[in-house]
Write a structure and sequence with these properties.
Two copies of one chain form a homodimer.
Chain A: E1 14-19, E2 24-29, E3 35-41, H1 53-70, E4 76-79, E5 94-95, H2 100-104, E6 108-113, E7 116-120, E8 124-126, E9 133-135, H3 138-149, E10 155-159, E11 164-170, E12 173-180, H4 182-192, H5 207-218, H6 226-229, H7 231-238, H8 244-265, E13 275-279, H9 282-294, E14 301-303, H10 306-317
Parallel strand pairs in A: 1-4, 4-7, 5-8, 10-13, 13-14
Antiparallel strand pairs in A: 1-2, 2-3, 6-7, 8-9, 10-11, 11-12
Chain lengths: ~325, ~325
């Protein structure tokens, strides 16, 4: 149970939530948009304490009930899967290209009790080449990265993870984005295929094995694509080249290498010299930095605290908090 | 329990076994190489009735003990994972390019009791582009296809399955081959990722959905590769384009489409007008025929009974049975 806020606690201008599938993060921000405090719980939308709307109320109360009581005037803003059809209240996708004022103008509301309301940021949808693509949560992180870095010209933002997103931004808008299910494919292959029989996960990062995977993805053999190259994880084990532990990072390098290759020749084409940024888990982003350097993309920056910055700037754009956002 | 052979049973020249990971098939062949009888059991090498060498003896006795007793002179020949390091006796891989006389000269033996011996066909290994690749069992099916079709010039043979193999043959030899883990990737994605939440397996074949997957793989979006395109299985569901049932065959078309695209631009390049053949499960091979036609490869033949034909012709090449093999 969090300790109650002391009477000297600084003013809270916004209570911001990053509410995903498997976790809930809460940020308490001051009137300058600085994070005063952050907390997290495992109560993602698929892991609520009880089912239904009451589960969302309880999860919020458990994590931040004392904040709600101490700052009854602070607006509440959330991003992520909480706004999906399986979430608390669906926030319909906004089509790209969209600026962040566009997102801020499409917030949906849901009552949280005691006469208060939670506002939810919508996700983005794109219909390039006849195929729909969606993101939910990442649009807010991208808003944060743009605000933090004041990058408003052409650039590429990568958000590695279970489902990696790559977004092309121009003039402060997301103009196109792609999804790569790399993280989840890695988990499925390394646990539920023949590769699982020999591959040993969980050791220290084996950078040599990871780089070997990158090299395979970039080699002539890599042209066959991941459906084929992944089998080399096994055969390099069979022939004694890769130990069980090395196979895990080899496979990681292979898949991340294929993803990065693909991004470089599609969404990232013609952007080689421009600002590339990464948002997400620091260790995972390091792997992507290695992979991008291997593919010839240098100077890729890692952006931290993009989520809370994004929620703050969307709140500004929506007029929930004072101040003028740096976003278009 | 199989009924005992009647006294009028025709002569048996060979007892041939296809002994894989999850099943065991036995064929009884006459002196002309015709199949007189076939049987199968679930006693693949990972599902033996008891562990260790005794498990292999028991599995063989259970399935074909009456054959062994009735034809004590018939040679026994097996192919498949029974010759792997996890099998009954390891038959070291033979490097490509290899002709089938080369395989026949490298059979390994293991005693099966009563003074009899089982001979095991070795698999093939290739070290193209620094990456090892292996097959075990498929080399025998390829031998069978070559013998049945008397194709001894340039051609491509596809063996779709859990791990699809594609072999380039020239002058009756396998000169190069690739592996695609398409079947196993499909199973892992459709059961152990986000896609499993909406995708519904097991319905009748939805050819329209399958073709839609092929089209995505071949489209501009397909250039991003399967790590990216597979996400469209979900988004086409989210946007109401694909039903839960249709998602299964869409994903199947997507993955098979990527595999076929890759084969066409690598191992199959410059072979578009030449003999392409498919060996394997008939329903699955039909999907591949549709996919190949979609990619512009016409007239692909499906070869049945390749395994037993292959075992027969390897037995001929090894001098286990009379007659001259049509193989080099």
């Amino acid at each position: 149970m969090p300790s109650p806020p002391s009477p000297e606690s600084p003013a809270t201008a916004l209570i911001a939530l990053d509410w995903g599938t498997s976790s809930l993060r809460a940020y308490r921000l001051d009137p300058a948009g600085r994070t005063l405090e952050q907390r997290h719980s495992p109560h993602g939308i698929t892991q609520l304490p009880v089912a239904g709307a009451e589960g969302f109320v309880q999860a919020l109360q458990l994590l931040a009930g004392d904040w709600l009581a101490a700052w009854p005037q602070a607006p509440l803003l959330a991003c992520g899967m909480v706004g999906s059809a399986q979430g608390w209240r669906e926030a319909p996708y906004v089509a790209v290209p969209s600026d962040f004022a566009g997102l801020a103008g499409r917030l949906v509301t849901v009552p949280v009790g005691s006469g208060r309301t939670l506002l939810i940021v919508p996700g983005l949808i794109e219909h390039r080449e006849g195929l729909p693509n969606v993101m939910r949560g990442e649009e807010t992180q991208i808003a944060g990265a743009l605000a933090l870095q004041a990058v408003d010209d052409l650039g590429l933002i990568g958000l590695p993870g279970t489902h990696s997103k790559w977004a092309r931004v121009a003039d402060g808008r997301v103009v196109a984005f792609d999804t790569y299910m790399t993280g989840e494919v890695y988990a499925a292959l390394s646990q539920h295929t023949l590769l699982a029989r020999t591959l040993e996960r969980g050791g220290a990062f084996d950078e040599a094995a990871f780089r070997r995977g990158l090299e395979t993805a970039q080699s002539e053999a890599g042209r066959r694509g991941p459906l084929s190259t992944i089998f080399s994880t096994r055969t390099l084990g069979l022939t004694g080249v890769l130990t069980a532990k090395a196979q895990a990072d080899y496979l990681s390098g292979l898949l991340i290498g294929h993803e990065v290759q693909s991004v470089c020749r599609t969404l990232g084409a013609e952007l080689q010299g421009q600002a590339w940024q990464l948002i997400g888990d620091e260790q995972l982003c390091r792997r992507y930095q290695v992979a991008l350097r291997h593919a010839g993309v240098e100077g890729v920056r890692w952006i931290s605290q993009a989520t809370e910055a994004g929620l703050w700037h969307v709140a500004q754009a929506a007029g929930l908090v004072a101040g003028r956002t740096g976003l278009p």
